[in-house]
Amino acid sequence: MAMDAPTFASAAPFPGRIAALVVAYRADDRLATCLAAAAGAADRVFLFQQNRGLDAADDARVDRAVAATGATLLADPANIGLAAAQNRLMDLALAQGADWLLFLDQDSVPRPGLRAAYAAALAAAPPDTGLLAARNVEPDDGPDSPWVVSPDGQRWAVVRRLDGPLLPDLLLAPASGSLVSAEAARACGPLRDDFFIDWVDVEYALRLRRAGFRLVAVRDALVDHRLGAVTHVQAGGRALAITHHAARRRWFQARNALWTWRLHRRAVPALTGWTLRILASTAIKIAVMERGRLPKLAAFAGGLWHGVWQGLPRRPHP
Known about the structure:
By secondary structure, this protein is an alpha/beta fold. It has two domains: 18-224, Alpha-Beta Complex (Spore Coat Polysaccharide Biosynthesis Protein SpsA, Chain A), CATH 3.90.550; 231-309, no CATH class. The chain has helices at residues 30-41, 56-69, 82-95, 114-124, 182-188, 200-210, 247-264, 270-289, 293-309; strands at 18-24, 44-49, 72-75, 100-105, 108-110, 129-137, 147-149, 157-159, 166-167, 179-181, 214-225, 231-235, 238-242. Strands 1, 2, 3, 4, 5, 6, 9, 10 and 11 form a nine-stranded mixed β-sheet that branches. Helix 2 links the parallel strand 2 and strand 3.
């Protein structure tokens, strides 16, 4: 498929050229809203469509959104996975001169002011910052996702609200809305496409930390993010997110969590306790609160087994 010429239109005041990277899989009409908002935050928008040619209605929705926003479209007739699709977008954007990469899910909509918030944050952030993380806000003022911080890599803590404009020393960051420097992306290499979808962002964030880059959350950088069929249940005074993911996703979540832990546990000891907490809380949520719990628990257990006994994935190189 033909690609646009390698040009970026400069948009002040951010000190550099931002490329927004969006992956579409069975997108609905909200994709156009996502791309339009991305165009307001970035200098160029790059879109990757999974399963191109399998559904005429899906192709038409993507084509309309691309035509309306001027996005650069890449596509594959198969579902190659989130990480592999993002890698293709990263390669193209970096080759065409992007200084920063803005990662967005197809159901993420940057709020007005995202670019300005990131510009202000970058001016105040430490010079070794490689990733700026947005606050992912669910529709109807749902709760923010908590932040996990670890200044020394030995211990971790959960921060549930940002009281100051910046929160440095994140242990990890959500992919959607994250802004990664081209320097960091080149130093750390591609995302792990053998993870396919889950824990891709967690593993990449840990790699950024290990390469000497800091991860900084930005209070005023807001992205509306709708997490599929998620519901919130009050427990212990807090809202628990119940995602109702399919059994196959639960397999990837368990396996990739243990793969990530095996890859980084020695360099980042804080990862051990946090991974155990996530695995335990996920299993409890499935067992107590989700539909179709038995096949999901079986898949989750299978993912744990593979995560322990399968050989570790190859290490990507820059």
